[in-house]
Design goal:
Layout lengths: L1 E6 L15 E2 L2 E2 H12 L4 E5 L3 H7 L5 E5 L7 H12 L6 E6 L7 H12 L4 E6 L2 E9 L3 H7 L7 H6 L5 E4 L21
Parallel strand pairs: 1-4, 1-6, 4-5, 7-9
Antiparallel strand pairs: 2-3, 6-8, 7-8
Helix pairs in contact: 1-4, 3-5
Amino acid sequence: MAGLLLAAGGGRRLGGRPKALLTMGGQPLVERAAEVLRAGGCGPLHIVLGAGAQEVRERTRLDRCRVIVNPDWAEGMGGSLRAGLASLAATDAEAALVMLVDQPRIGPEAVARLIAAYGRGAALAAAAYDGERGHPVLFARRHWPEVAARASGDRGARDFLRAHAGELTLVECGDVAAPDDVDTPEDLGLLEA
């Protein structure tokens, strides 16, 4: 199970700080999220950077991770998802668990639940919070080409997931995680919780 961390966002509503470098407990979110993926059972780990990529590399420890830089990060999550899946295509991973760097209240328990669903035969699965689809999302390898083809702008895999709703396994994670994004200055309090 490969872990794919999308960490390219520029944090426009946060004053232009790369989200990867926001800290929680003194640790950059990109490092924390990589640890969550690994502790939940993912490997190899591929991380897509964009905004401030050189600064992120200089200020973080991402050893044991393959780092991909999306030069078109400002166009939205879709390009980062395509870049990450293209990178994973060169591995022997059977599936990819895609996580977003700006959701600090998602921990290894949610990752492990999605991997367990894959082990029970789910080729397409997403964490759910009170029954509502959220992140992380798991895609079996056979889905990667269509996910990449449909990924555009800030929509990421949304169109693919909508088209394949009947195949999607929702894995309830609301008891062990929360889907809150850090998008605005008001959200920065999530990093202190």
